[in-house]
Each structure stands twice: as structure tokens, then as C-alpha cells.
Amino acid sequence: MTERLYYEDAYCREFDAKVADCREGKKGWEIILDKTAFYPEGGGQPADQGTLGDAEVLDVKEGGDEVIHLCDRPLEPGSTVHGKLDWDRRFGFMQQHSGEHIFSGIVHRTFGYDNIGFHMGKDFVTVDFSGMLSEDDIARVERESNEAVFSDRKILAEYPSSEELEKLDYRSKKELEGQVRIVTIPGSDVCACCGTHVKRTGEIGPIKAVASEHYKSGIRINLQIGWKALEDYDRKHKNTREISALLSVPPEETAEAVKKLQEQLQELKAANVALRQKELDRLVDEVEEGTDRVIRFEEDLNPVEVRLLADRLAKKARFAAVFSGNDQDGYKYVLCSSQIDVAALGKKFNEALNGRGGGRNPMVQGSVAADRRKIEKFLSPAGQEEEKRK
What we know:
The chain is an alpha+beta fold. Helices cover about 35% and strands about 30% of the residues. A six-stranded antiparallel beta barrel has the order 2-3-7-6-5-8. It is elongated and about 95 Å long. About 30% of the residues are buried. Its main location: cytoplasm. It comes from Candidatus Eisenbergiella merdipullorum. One of its GO terms (molecular function) is aminoacyl-tRNA deacylase activity.
């Protein structure tokens, strides 16, 4: 049985322990100590990392009454080893876990929703609740959560007796057996929890809800807590400063400046569409009614414009082909006709000129990696006669 020092003192960063067992596992060496300050993954909190002597602790997991340390090298059973936690990592998890308790406790107290999911990820803490919250609701909970942080309340972790537990109103994510550890944050939360926590709420730092989305019948909220929240603020502050400089407006006016920029962009897009439509009209007007075939090469038509131009040209010509691109990068194409079998023509065209695509009469489309000269030769009357003779 491993003595769990993290329950006696969550701030224990280094310790000495005896190696009780060492065995080779699938992912490294599994080491069991007589006592440990390394927290195993559980309750939504990731496992600690650090070192045991010269061995790197890669992961920590529960093994019944034992704590199993997954290491990159073996340790001698019976020897004494010095353990050292990656304290910055652990303390960050303590901040995040305590902050999540405050946020979830206030949601439960105010709206009656249960926390049905909790995960400390690389970028943020994810919490799932059993009911919906509006943006104003989330802002209210966030405000009250930070008030609890600023109040610097003491966080308690206790093991009440079974009689005391029956009288206690506390949150729990699952059915519990045996002795129950209750974490209490006065005014915010009372919850059964096996994780590590800071001593006082003031150590948590800022709590910020950065995103939310509908999840099942409730809501999923992403939280930034403690140092993570400050890192997130630094990134966003830097981005805002850069956007401010690019738009030549104060940081607090960037949103309004972007709105105006979007409006101008929409106006330019509309003007551009009108100009391109006039250009398509001009290209169509250049073709006489009853023309046998027309083949157009343009540099920068988008796929919709290629189809539109080919369709309009085919109303004036027996056969129309439109290509957009260049010899170096290849062409997007549309072949269109109501009088000839362009489906069969397109298949032969792709086979002969390294093309891809298809469709049904009266229009086929695709892309082709061939130069303009070869394309024009294939589609010319002489080229078509040659294909018939094959």
C-alpha cells in the first residue's frame, strides 16, 4: 500500500521513498514506492510528472492500493530514491482544479445544474453542465467566481464520518464507496473530490470563461484559470495590439474598425461582381449566333464563372469550351453543348491530356494538366477528325 503524501500536503514538491517494486511494462518501467507525492491521473486531473532519482516519471496511475509510476528506466527494489515533482505543472493543475470547483459550485447553487463532465486539457479546462446557460448567466458566474478568488478564502479538505456525511449537502459526480474526501470552498462549493487543491482561493488567480457551446442537453464551457488565464490574456493582448497598429485605431476601437472594414469589403465585392459580369457579357457578345465552336482561355475565372460563361456561350455556339488557368499550373475547364455528346468527348479529352473530371450531357467539367497549344489542337476540327480515326 502506497502512502499518499499529496493528501497530507499538496505542496510537497520533493520527498524520499523506498522502492517497493519495479517491473517492466508495455510503456516503460512500472515503479511502486512505499510513499509518494506524485498524483495519479483521476477525477479529471492529469497525472504529475517529474523525476525519481535519474529516472523520468512519464505517467502515474492508480493500481488498487498502490500508486504506479511509469518511468523511462528501472530502479533497484529496496533502494531509497529522491522524488521531485514538476512543480509548475502540478501547481497549475491545483489552480485549475480549485477554480473549476468554484465555478461549478456557483452554477450548481445558482441554477441547480450538475457538473456532468470535467477535463483539464492542454489549452483550457472543459466543464460540462446538465442545463443551458446564457451569456449573461456565464458572465454572472464568472464574476462571482472571481469575487471568491479575491476574498482569499481558506479551502478545506476533510474526511467526515458516515453520520456527518449523511447530513452534508455536497456535490458528487459519481456514486462513492468507503471513506469520502470532501473539499469545501466556503460560500462557493462543497464537493466530493480526490484531487489536489491550493490552500486559499487567492492562489487560484483569475477565472475566465473563454468559450461555450451546446453539449447534449446542456452546455460545455471552456475555462482559463490561474497562470493559464494570464498566458491567454497575454496572447490576446498581443494580437489586439498588432490589429490596432494595422488598423491605426486605439485597441478599444478595433472591433468597430473591423466592422467598417467588412462593410467596405462587401461593397468592393459587389462592385467586383458587377465588373466581372460586364466582362462575361462582353465575352459572350463577341461570339456570333450560330458559331460552330468557341474556345475561351481566361486567367482568373472562378469555377462558377467558368460554368456560367460556358453555358452562355453554348447558347450561341454548337460547342463551347472555357478554360481558366495557365500552362504552368494547369486549367479548370467546362465543355458544354446541347448538340454533341460532351460526356464522351470529356472522357477522351481527359485520357489524351492528363485530365480529371466528368459529368453528364450537356455539361462536363474538370481540370487538365496540359498546355494551351495541345488543348486547342485536340478540340480543333482536325483534332476531332484524328480522334475519330483512332
